[in-house]
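Re-running Small ribosomal subunit biogenesis GTPase RsgA to confirm reproducibility after the cluster update. Everything else is unchanged from the original entry.
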Amino acid sequence: MASGIIIQSLSGFYDVLSQGETYRCKGRGVFRNKKITPLVGDIVEFDPDEGYLLSVERRTNELVRPPVANIDQAIIVISAVDPAFNSRLLDRFLVLVESKLIDPIIVISKQDQVVSAVEIEEYQAVYEKAGYQVILSEPGKKEALTAVKELFKDKTTVIAGQSGVGKSTLLNAIHPDLSLETGEISKSLGRGKHTTRHVELFSINGGLVADTPGFSSLEFDSVSAEALGECFPEVRENAAFCKFRGCLHDKEPKCAVKAAVENGEIAEGRYEHYIEFLHEIQNRKPRY
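Result of re-run:
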């Protein structure tokens, strides 16, 4: 018996990385009986001789779309142009990542195509003030690529973001041997063509990196109204000073979060997205 991590799942087979070697395994019927579906990123016990998975360790977290488990951090790639920088979309990604207790890092791609960098620098300042690490990435800019590469060490990382923003391009620049397929932007939709077909963990700089097909759903199905503030670091920090416990920072009086927005400590755009997401969650229809 040995232990390892699932780095790829295809057609009922699981590639397990253990001690630098990869073993192809199948799951036993016990997984079906217990309704356990092994995921990429799972830590497993397996029989290297018979080629069977024996057990799956308890997960620290998991994503449904894309299906990957035990993620330490998410590098969220958002483009400066083509498609245009979208702070609302970025905030949706950040909420979903924060809700899973995954550390987010923001990479703004396609900097070389920006006519004026002032607006992007303003966004960078907003997110850095909120407590996020922001990296500006340009093709061929070694400093940014080195900074991203260093993040991978000893971590399991997902690369997330809207299709066409340059996720595969970024990974190819860092690790050319991957030769991941990249896609063009659909001019009619402003979206990229999906090029990543499945989730696979690649070994890069002492860590494991998933090039995912992007989040196929950006719905807040598993985020409650009460938990939403925890997914905004600047809201989370100021919420402790609200007069009323359970304050949702919307219509409540003596709210420290609203006061922080008024005095400029919290960016107005970020707060507006918080309120928009809050109302979306409050108005969603219950599922049975």
